[in-house]
């Protein structure tokens, strides 16, 4: 038994069979190897041109994050000193109990004087370690202490933050306990 097929006639009078198969009525979509190579090469050139700018942007962002970390720590200590009517100290501390002199270490916020025995000090908070190359504060490396009235003890102090690619900033702590930021990279970074 023969199968009867749908046929149409052409203008010349010949019979034309309909298209069969998966591509019948559909056009195949895709890209050629040449198009793919062209797009990938443009992408590689654009990435090579933009990566140095991205690296500098990341360095500026690291400095901005560190400025926020220090501002948060100092503001928390000042507000705690005022609200508790007690001396509160901010200092770098690897172990959370004693103070060190490396300001890139984790920061501890302690209630009480630094010279007191650890049993008389209360750890109020810790902040993670810095990712910057260097942070310096004053020449004598003393910690920041806030009195019960919110004033910082000692003289005005300046935190110098130095990051990658020469990026940096300065935080100036006044005797009144307020902090201001200078966005320019300090000398020596």
UniProtKB/TrEMBL annotation:
> Can you say what this protein is called?
Type II secretion system protein H
- Organism, by scientific name, is Halomonas halmophila
- Membrane topology note: Single-pass membrane protein
Task: Provide the alphabetized UniProt keywords.
Answer: Cell inner membrane, Cell membrane, Membrane, Methylation, Transmembrane, Transmembrane helix
Looking at the record, the residues that make up the General secretion pathway GspH domain are: 67-175
Q: Name one GO biological process term.
A: protein secretion by the type II secretion system
Region described as Disordered: 1-21
Where is this chain's protein located in or outside the cell? Cell inner membrane
Lineage of the organism: Bacteria, Pseudomonadati, Pseudomonadota, Gammaproteobacteria, Oceanospirillales
């Amino acid at each position: 038994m023969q199968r009867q097929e749908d046929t149409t006639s052409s203008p010349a009078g010949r019979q034309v069979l309909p298209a069969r198969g998966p591509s019948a009525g559909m056009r195949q979509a895709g890209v050629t190897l040449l198009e793919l190579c062209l797009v990938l090469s443009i992408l590689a050139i654009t990435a090579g041109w933009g990566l140095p700018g991205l690296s500098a942007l990341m360095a500026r962002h690291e400095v901005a994050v560190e400025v926020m970390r220090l501002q948060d720590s100092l503001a928390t200590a000042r507000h705690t000193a005022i609200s508790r009517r007690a001396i509160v100290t901010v200092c770098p501390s690897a172990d959370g109990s004693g103070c060190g002199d490396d300001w890139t270490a984790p920061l501890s916020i302690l209630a009480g004087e630094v010279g007191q025995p650890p049993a008389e000090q209360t750890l109020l908070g810790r902040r993670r370690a810095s990712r910057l190359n260097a942070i310096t504060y004053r020449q004598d490396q003393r910690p920041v202490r806030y009195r019960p009235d919110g004033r910082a003890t000692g003289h005005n102090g300046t935190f110098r933050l130095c990051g990658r690619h020469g990026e940096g900033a300065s935080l100036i702590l006044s005797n009144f306990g307020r902090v201001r930021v200078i966005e320019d990279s300090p000398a020596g970074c």
